[in-house]
Amino acid sequence: MDRRKFLVLSGATVTTIGGCQWSNPFDQRDRIRIAGLLGAIPSKVVNQFESASQKKLEFKAENLPSKLWQELQNYSSNPKDKAPHLVSIGDSWLDQAIAQSLIQPITPNLLEKIPKWQKLSPLWQQSVTRNDQVWGIPYRWGATAIAYRSDKLKFEITQWADLWRPELKLKLTLPDDAREVIGLVLKKMGLRDQPENLVERPDLLVKLTQELKSLNAQVLTYSSDNYLQSLLADDTLAAVGWTSDMFKAQRTNPNLKVVIPQDGTLLWSDIWVIPKGEVAIAAMEWINFCLTPAIAAQITSLTDAVSASSELEQVPASVKADPIKFFSQDILAKSELMSPLPPSTLTQYKDIWTKLRSGTL
User: Which helix (H) or strand (E) covers residue 250, if one does?
Assistant: First the structure.
């Protein structure tokens, strides 16, 4: 289990990644090569793009974001292999990709080919901008959420503080992820995910440490992959994870309730980036196509996340009524993206996390 669910893509020129080679027998000079996530793009969208643009697209899909990250690194270390023109990565990998020179910025002349970029929310524009350079284009998003067994718990979970209740002692699964866990504790404390330097706030550091230790006493296991399996197997009663994982699990398990905490949450996005190497102007058409109202509606309605497009008028009312995908504006206003941490804060997070997991905090 990952935060993206498996969905088989069908249709022309869609294959599964099996290494860095692009083995399509047709002439690739006229083809747009894209490496993306299984299930992130409805299968028929590839055919719709080819029909509308009169361009051929070779879409190779991988079912784990981590595998796409590995592929992006492989393209850089094997320059003789033909890299895709676009790769989908999670926003948490963006700064690493920039630091490792795996990708190149989307220059102003390329942005001109993506008119829907100007219509994106400033939240998404700022999330991919570093030193006035744009490094990717968000195309879908989701949130960190809590799933729990409504048939086993005698209370409703509505906020992060509920995870500290005695009924959940050793019945909780948390992500094996320092930013997510420390972030939710900070949210519970009424703070932002990225607080001021903890060294300069010893009172805050003491409070954060206390909250983490008491939360750790609730945890049966830390997992970023199998957290829903343990929940459905009755090993745990609540789990923190991602809406994209929880969305379909809830549809097939009526006793599984999913909530976005009232005190706000952390947001994530998937973004298109350009690997180092050849730039295909036509690939910008694909990015723009993904953000058009009709395709944004399909991504939102037919997959486990919400399009980053601000033009969602064509999304059916029944989908907009879903509280997992479209939670209240009040909660959204209290939520935030996991922005890059300063080196000093990142070091503090790593030190706290290492001590927490080793039992020495």
Answer: helix 243-252
